[in-house]
């Protein structure tokens, strides 16, 4: 009985993304969704387009900015959020409360923006504080929409729940152990909590971001903190597919994925979930359920992510791609044998704030896969080391990375042969290959203009054959 009671008392964490919060119609449908749960924790992204608008505005602060431009920008934000609440809220007594809450948030944002205008630069710590306002504002709107529908709800901020992170301002890691106690206490009770996603707090109380799209990661961490029975994520897409439907018209839905498969798909460009969403939930085995929005009673998840997924004859679950890569090639006859060379290079690149996404090495070359646009800065950092064994450092920006993902991919014979036969038949040149680094993924580099055809022919090689058998 005690275990049954504990299970009933556990709150499901429900995540709503910005693409879902893209219209008054969608936002008006949120109370109906919430009614399908018992006192859920609702983690929200910023309204569609708001994070980008904040990013663009602070990127333009290169010198003194007229006060009126700040005022105009804030007025547009205010109007957007008031409008998103819908006519029913705007014409009710709750409208005054929403206006007051938005004005309070925007007054704090105004102080930051005016300060940045005088500075003429945007430190990472201030950038994090500014961009977090997107989620703070949307939470206020959702709270008032729920209240108008009679839902007992309240806003619970990361500050109140003590969502602790490290001190990396723009790509923070959540500390579940430090967050768990306070989060459980604050979120307990018979109410729906509306939580702004995307940010947490460093040890000294400063705002840190969880990188772009990090509200998924927020929701996963909160689910881990309160031992939620599941993390339910609502998107404007029908879960994971076997390929991007823009490239493959007959892409199939994937009903089940393992944590590892979902993480690799996210890492290599399937923009369904933040790549770190799976990380906090693997240990407890908390399922992640993806639903299309809106969903009605008797709703069925499009994709369930759990510890294991079925392995069929084709093995490959999905073919994905990413253009978010550039390559720095470090050449020299003996670079592969110089002790400590890779450590020196990695340290130098890390010190200029660049993340190395993958490394492919050989006797005469070390290839570093970085985020697109980071190549030039990384190459300069390597050049400054003046390593005798390095003869040349080259940047290759025209890189498309294509990955095939599926449990068993590393151990099933013939996967690589089928993949590269399909590419050769289509006349596609493969520039680099990595097979075996992950137990569930293999990836290769092609010229960016070839990545769409690469996805198409590989999908046909695996999935048309699966149909035939």
Alpha carbon gyration radius: 24 Å
Shape: globular
> Separation of termini?
49 Å
Beta-strand residue fraction: 15-25%
> What count of domains describes the coordinates?
2
Largest sheet: 8 strands, mixed
* The CATH homology group name of the largest domain: Acetylglutamate kinase-like
CATH topology of the largest domain: Carbamate kinase
Number of strands: 18
Uncertain segments are: 1-8
Distinct helical segment count: 17
CATH architecture grouping of the largest domain:
3-Layer(aba) Sandwich
Q: Widest sheet: strand order?
A: 3-4-2-1-7-9-10-8
Mean pLDDT: 90
Helix percent reads 25-40%
- The first-level CATH class of the largest domain is given as Alpha Beta
Give the helix/strand class. Answer: alpha/beta
Give keywords:
alpha/beta, 17 helices, single chain, 469 residues, disordered N terminus, 18 strands, VC0802-like, Carbamate kinase, four-stranded antiparallel sheet
Describe what this molecule looks like in 3D.
This protein is of the alpha/beta class and 469 residues long. It folds into two domains: 242 residues, Carbamate kinase (3-Layer(aba) Sandwich); 151 residues, 2-Layer Sandwich (VC0802-like), CATH 3.30.2130. The protein has 17 helices and 18 strands. Strand 13 and strand 14 form a beta hairpin. The termini are far apart. The N terminus is likely disordered.
């Amino acid at each position: 009985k005690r275990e049954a009671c504990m299970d009933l008392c556990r709150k499901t964490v429900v995540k709503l993304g910005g693409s879902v919060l893209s219209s008054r119609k969608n936002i008006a449908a949120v109370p109906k969704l919430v009614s399908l749960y018992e006192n859920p924790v609702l983690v929200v992204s910023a309204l569609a387009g708001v994070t980008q608008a904040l990013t663009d505005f602070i990127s333009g602060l290169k010198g003194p900015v007229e006060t009126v431009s700040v005022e105009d920008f804030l007025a547009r934000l205010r109007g957007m959020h008031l409008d998103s609440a819908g006519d029913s809220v705007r014409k009710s007594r709750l409208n005054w409360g929403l206006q007051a809450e938005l004005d309070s948030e925007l007054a704090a944002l105004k102080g930051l923006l005016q300060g940045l205008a005088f500075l003429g630069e945007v430190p990472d710590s201030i950038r994090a504080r500014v961009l977090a306002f997107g989620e703070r504002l949307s939470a206020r709107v959702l709270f008032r929409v729920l209240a108008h529908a009679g839902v007992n709800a309240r806003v619970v901020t990361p500050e109140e729940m003590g969502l602790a992170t490290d001190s990396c301002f723009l790509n923070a890691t959540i500390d579940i152990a430090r967050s768990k106690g306070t989060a459980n206490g604050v979120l307990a009770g018979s109410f729906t909590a509306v939580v702004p996603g995307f940010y947490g707090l460093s040890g000294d109380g400063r705002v840190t971001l969880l990188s772009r799209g990090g509200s998924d990661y927020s929701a996963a961490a909160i689910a881990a903190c309160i031992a939620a029975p599941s993390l339910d994520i609502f998107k404007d897409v029908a879960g994971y597919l076997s390929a991007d439907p823009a490239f493959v018209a007959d892409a199939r839905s994937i009903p089940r994925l393992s944590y590892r498969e979902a993480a690799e798909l996210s890492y290599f460009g399937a923009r369904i979930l933040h790549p770190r969403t799976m990380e906090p939930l693997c240990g407890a085995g908390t399922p992640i359920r993806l639903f299309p929005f809106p969903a009605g009673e008797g709703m069925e998840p499009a994709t369930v992510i759990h510890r294991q997924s079925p392995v069929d004859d084709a093995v490959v679950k999905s073919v994905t791609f990413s253009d978010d890569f550039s390559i720095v090639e470090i050449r020299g006859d003996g670079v592969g044998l110089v002790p400590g060379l890779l450590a020196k290079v990695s340290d130098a690149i890390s010190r200029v704030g660049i993340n190395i996404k993958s490394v492919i090495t050989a006797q005469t070359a070390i290839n570093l896969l970085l985020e697109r646009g980071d190549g030039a800065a990384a190459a300069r950092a390597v050049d400054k080391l003046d390593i005798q064994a390095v003869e040349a450092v080259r940047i290759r920006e025209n890189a498309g990375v294509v990955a095939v993902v599926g449990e068993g991919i590393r151990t099933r014979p013939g996967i690589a042969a089928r993949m590269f036969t399909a590419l050769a038949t289509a006349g596609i040149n493969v520039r680099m290959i990595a097979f075996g680094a992950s137990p569930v993924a293999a990836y290769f580099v092609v010229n960016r203009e070839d990545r769409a055809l690469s996805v198409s022919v590989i999908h046909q090689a695996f999935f048309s054959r699966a149909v035939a058998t």
